[in-house]
Amino acid sequence: MSNPAKNTICLWYERDAEEAARFYASIFPNSYVTSVNLAPGDYPSGQQGDVLTVDFTVMGIPCIGLNGGPAFKHSEAFSFQVATQDQAETDHYWNAIVNNGGAESECGWCKDKWGISWQITPAVLIQAITHPDPSAAKRAFDAMMTMRKIDIATIEKALRG
């Protein structure tokens, strides 16, 4: 069954769309695999009967994973931004992605093992860097710029000055 959404994010995978979709469903709330669709015939990067597409949802966002082969790679030009409420939730998502073959990046960004970028962003960070006091916002921003995974206590301390 195809995803009935009018607007769906299509994510290109070399061959692991189903594994990726099941991983996302295992760690994020309101995430699940809807269907796994097999190729009705041979195609440039696969054969009839291979998994061609996977319909899934990540935190309420409908997606299609396409096993399109090695022609295209992901970049930071696209990312999922996941808002977190506390350090435990931030650590949970960050660690799940990084410890499953992913990689850390800067300022709360990480990549999963399939190359999809994720921004694991505590709500307090957004509030801090958009604070009405420009000097407080700058302190929080400067603190963020030194981090990989966001440390909420450090952001709050920078905000206070």
Question: TL;DR?
Answer:
With about 160 residues, the chain is of the alpha/beta class. The protein contains 5 helices and 8 strands, in the order βαββββαβββααα. It has a 4-stranded mixed β-sheet with strand order 1-4-3-2, covered by helices on one side. Strands 5-8-7-6 form a 4-stranded mixed β-sheet.
The CATH class designation of the largest domain is: Alpha Beta
By oligomeric state, this entry counts as single chain
What count of helical segments does DSSP give?
Answer: 5
Q: Please, what is the average pLDDT?
A: 96
Shape: elongated
The appropriate CATH architecture of the largest domain is Roll
Strand order of the largest sheet: 1-4-3-2
Major β-sheet profile: 4 strands, mixed
Rg over CA atoms: 18 Å
CATH 4th-level superfamily of the largest domain: 2,3-Dihydroxybiphenyl 1,2-Dioxygenase, domain 1
Helix content: 25-40%
Strand content: 25-35%
Query: In total, how many domains does the architecture comprise?
Result: 2
User: How many strand elements?
Assistant: 8
Catalogue the unreliable spans. none
| Class from secondary-structure proportions | alpha/beta
N-to-C series of helices and strands:
EHEEEEHEEEHHH
Distance between the termini: 54 Å
Question: At the third CATH level, what is the topology name of the largest domain?
Answer: 2,3-Dihydroxybiphenyl 1,2-Dioxygenase, domain 1
